[in-house]
Amino acid sequence: GFGLSSITTPVGLIFFSPRLLNPALILNEVIANIVVFWHNRSSFKKLRSHIFHVSLWTLPGIVLGSRLVSKVEPDAIRASLYCILFVLIVPQLFNRFRGLNLKRRSNSAVAGFVIGLVYSLTTVSGPLLSLIFGNKNGEHSDFRCSIAFVRIWESLGSAVMYWWLGVINLE
After folding, report:
1. Considering only CA atoms, which of 159, 158, 130 is closest in space to residue 143?
2. How far apart are CA 112 and CA 70, in angstroms?
């Protein structure tokens, strides 16, 4: 479920390279997010236009982030993860961010790209998704449906890119 990669990844990166850890976490998250989406699918009809647009824009970010994972030194990825987590979690601690207006397509495009980039680099997207979708005014099932749908896209997209770039080796 939610919070797994936000906890597992920073700890796991202390011991393992992102090239080893990320593919294992991504394959696990594909299954976990399909289950979460299935349980909250009743919310999809009213949310689909917003979450589909964000999900679609994760793909360019995934392509860039996956290429960086295959090229960038693991220590640089570790450092970026801890900085990203700090920047994303602090506003939530002080309740300073209320979510984006996803009715504006430009907000959805930028949000999707950043989600895809951060996820494919680190497998962490929960704090960013919480900031974007906000869980302040809606039903909890809407929030979970939105996050699960985007995470299915980002985990499947990252898995395909990792396989294509040779980061995931099935042999």
Report:
1. 130
2. 21
Please, are residues 59 and 161 in contact by the beta-carbon 8 Å criterion? no
What is the helix (H) or strand (E) element at residue 10, kind and residue range?
A: helix 4-15
Residues 29-64 pLDDT 10s: 888 889 989 998 888 888 887 788 889 999 999 999
Identify whether the C-beta of residue 127 lies closer than 8 Å to the C-beta of residue 32: no
Contact between residue 162 and residue 66 where contact means Cβ atoms under 8 Å apart: yes
Q: Report yes or no: 113 and 81 within 8 Å, Cβ to Cβ.
A: no
**Three-state SS at 142:** helix
Residue 129 neighbours by CB under 8 Å, 6+ apart: 115, 146, 147, 150, 151
Q: What is the pLDDT of residues 115-134, one digit of tens each?
A: 898 888 888 887 778 777 76
Q: Provide the 8-state DSSP code for 166.
A: T
Nearest-Å Rg of the Cα atoms of the chain is 15
| Inter-residue contact 30 to 157 (CB < 8 Å) | no
- Rounded to an integer, the average pLDDT of 75-93 is 75
Which among 79, 165, 58 has a CA at the least distance from the CA of 122?
79
Gap between the Cα atoms of 80 and 91, Å rounded: 18
* C-alpha–C-alpha distance, residues 99 and 134, integer Å: 4
